[in-house]
Amino acid sequence: RTVYVNGEYLPEHEAKVSIFDRAFLMADGVYEVTSVLDGKLIDFGGHMARLDRSLSELDIRKPGCFDDLLEIHRELVRVNGIDEGLVYLQITRGSPGDRDFVFPDPETTEPTVVLFTQNKPGLAQSPAVKTGLKIVSIPDVRWGRRDIKTVQLLYPSMGKMMAKAAGADDAWMVMDGFVTEGTSNNAYFIKGNKIVTRALSHDILHGITRAAVLRFAAEAQMEVEERDFTVAEAQDADEAFITSASAFVMPVVEIDGVALGGGVPGPRAARLREIYLDESR
Ligand code: PDD
């Protein structure tokens, strides 16, 4: 695999980042994941707009290559022959050459930029679309700025492990009695013709797929209600689903052991997935 590191395209085993990199020592970095279908980047503009915002919220300077990111994404997709898969992009505050809690001087420390591709043939036809996901709820103990897409992913990673240990596929996180989001996705339920999902705030990541799916709701003759909801309310729904750049729209068939819609994926989430894939390809 060819990867991109700080201005260079290199074979992955030759790519190097300093041990003093702020992301390695302090999770001081942000990332984006953009999916690729038929060799084309999906929702690229949205991902770059959120990246821009994540950087500015953390006062990380834009790297010199910022305006070339589309070109770099396309080049990696091309050289690695990605038809279906993902492009991972990470920008960190850089490698000041020592460990220090104080941010390095942005005049002398260049941000670190890393991009690599993940080949995932069949990404759009994942078998989980047919079976649906089983979800367990776990407490949301993450920091208070989940709207910034930082590489601080230890708890979401632990959450997936807790889900697996419980025989489920993924976890939804709960704060003050209300669902925030999934470990790496946004969370929704459907009741009648209404899609309910938590409103945007510092409590959740502002999903790029979320924005697109809510925009397409009208095309599926559905209404959108952005508000807090409990696990019990979602368990009582007709359908539930998640969204993310890598899962698109994925049905949920069970929450904390309670089956939804007879435990099989429902038609409305399927319709939303179909519209999302049609419109964004
Ligand atoms: N995760 N919420 C969280 C906590 C996420 O990590 C993600 C994305 C989302 C969905 O955002 P989007 O639709 O823009 O992908 C919501 C990515 C895919 C990941 O970490 O791999």
UniProtKB/TrEMBL annotation:
Q: Which GO terms describe its cellular component?
A: cytosol
Q: Which InterPro entries match?
A: Aminotrans_IV, Aminotrans_IV_CS, Aminotransferase-like, BCAT-like_C, BCAT-like_N, Class-IV_PLP-Dep_Aminotrnsfr
Drop me one GO molecular function for this one.
branched-chain-amino-acid transaminase activity
Pathway the protein contributes to: Amino-acid biosynthesis; L-leucine biosynthesis; L-leucine from 3-methyl-2-oxobutanoate: step 4/4; Amino-acid biosynthesis; L-isoleucine biosynthesis; L-isoleucine from 2-oxobutanoate: step 4/4; Amino-acid biosynthesis; L-valine biosynthesis; L-valine from pyruvate: step 4/4
Pfam families per UniProt: Aminotran_4
* Coiled-coil ranges per UniProt: none
Q: Which CDD domains match?
A: D-AAT_like (cd01558)
General function of this protein:
Acts on leucine, isoleucine and valine.
**Family designation:** Belongs to the class-IV pyridoxal-phosphate-dependent aminotransferase family.
NCBIfam families the record matches: PRK06680.1
Q: What protein name is recorded for this chain?
A: Probable branched-chain-amino-acid aminotransferase
